[in-house]
Design brief:
Helix 1 (9-25) crosses helix 2. The protein has helices spanning 9-25, 41-52, 80-87, 112-119, 156-162, 181-185, 200-208, and strands at 2-6, 30-34, 61-65, 67-69, 99-100, 125-128, 150-153, 175-178, 189-194, 226-231. The strands form two sheets. Strands 1-10-9-6-2-3-5 form a seven-stranded parallel β-sheet, with helices on one face. The termini are close together. Helix 2 (41-52) links the parallel strand 2 and strand 3 (61-65). The radius of gyration is 17 Å and the shape is globular. The longest helix has 17 residues, at 9-25. Helices cover 27% and strands 18% of the residues. The protein has 242 residues and is of the alpha/beta class. The protein has seven helices and ten strands. Bound molecules: 2-amino-2-deoxy-6-O-phosphono-alpha-D-glucopyranose.
């Protein structure tokens, strides 16, 4: 793992956005794996500004989001599709037919999403946030490392953490479909970002702890090209890595 620490969310977002602009511009086609949540909102704003200032185009970009809530009205502003529209897709020249989300219909084989990703060339760069319990995507502690896209019941701590996007915790869906750990590990490059003191324990265990399904993000220690971008608060409990 390559660990980089910046002063705050703005500076870490600048680093990630610049890297993505450089990658998008230097490839004919790029498949991006995208994450929702608060971690990447500034990155998406910077990419939007980059597009407005003609620093990049999304015409040759295809996207695959990590996860989507189940049993949520498709017009609800907090579906992950609507989140991505609002924070990025509505403001840039991406072809929305090339923006993909895990299927959430009850009668579907969720692994079709992995097959689609594979058929379209695999993910070049996967953005990842981390949950306070070490989850990546919505792979909660205990999920086997060889899992592909699947449906999950969200932990109460995760619903609590995500209530900031809803009127109350009762409104947060109880289930989601997420890429599995194996799906995520198949990406050619991973950029995991975290900011804030509330992520410091999860970040320490991910980087310096044992590799265990009890802390899903710890598997990233085994990825060949994983960049971890932190602010000083999220990095504050690291002992050896910075
Ligand atoms: C959420 C999402 C993840 C996200 C993570 C961190 O529950 N499913 O994809 O990366 O938890 O969220 P946040 O960025 O809001 O801290």
């Amino acid at each position: 793992m390559d660990v980089k620490v910046f002063k705050n969310k703005t500076e870490l977002s600048r680093h990630i956005a610049d890297l993505m602009i450089e990658k998008i511009n230097s490839h004919d086609h790029l498949n991006l794996g995208l994450a929702t949540g608060s971690t990447f909102t500034k990155v998406y704003r910077m990419l939007t500004e980059g597009y407005i200032h003609r620093q990049l185009s999304f015409r040759s970009v295809r996207t695959f989001n990590l996860d989507e809530y189940v049993d949520i009205d498709e017009h609800h502003p907090e579906t992950y599709r609507n989140f991505m529209n609002r924070h990025l897709f509505d403001h840039v020249d991406i072809d929305k037919d090339k923006t993909h989300f895990p299927p959430t219909d009850a009668d579907i084989d969720y692994k079709e999403y992995d097959d689609l990703i594979e058929k379209l060339g695999g993910i070049d760069i996967q953005l990842l946030g981390i949950g306070v319990n070490g989850h990546i995507g919505f792979n909660e502690p205990g999920v086997p490392f060889d899992t592909r896209t699947h449906k999950v019941r969200l932990e109460e701590t995760t619903r609590e953490a995500n209530k900031k996007f809803f009127d109350s915790v009762d409104e947060v869906p109880t289930h989601a479909v997420t890429m599995g750990i194996e799906s995520i590990m198949g990406s050619r490059m991973i950029i995991l970002a975290a900011y804030g003191h509330h992520k410091a324990d999860a970040v320490r265990d991910m980087i310096e702890g044992a590799i265990t399904i009890d802390h899903p993000a710890s598997i990233l220690q085994k990825h060949a090209d994983c960049l971890v971008v932190l602010d000083e608060a999220a990095a504050s409990k690291l002992k050896y890595s910075i």
